[in-house]
Amino acid sequence: MANTETALKEALASIEGATGAALVDYTSGMALGTIGGSKTFDLNVAAAGNTDVIRAKIRTMEHLGLKAEIEDILITLTDQYHLIRLLTGRGGNGLFLYLVLDAKRANLAMARHQLKRIEESLEV
């Protein structure tokens, strides 16, 4: 089982094109851990903003009466992919992994697969 720091380091090191990763509490909007980012890309701001994305999707699903669970949310920009994966394991309720990828270098299918594997090994 990996702790937060180990899991985020693994995400950045093992996922091709990853430029930043965070573990975020979407009830508070607070990042519990971050790695990567840059002077022009603040992961804490992005993490907080993406909590609104999750809350909006959950509300919409409730209004539609959908009983399914969100696996992940993908946001594609012209030069980046933003992958949001809600944690489903023990102790993961209300948390998500957030991964920023360089679209030119990333393999999105592999990134999703590897992020799921990292989630399964994460001990919160």
TrEMBL record:
This is Dynein regulation protein LC7. It comes from Streptomyces longwoodensis. The lineage of its organism: Bacteria, Bacillati, Actinomycetota, Actinomycetes, Kitasatosporales.
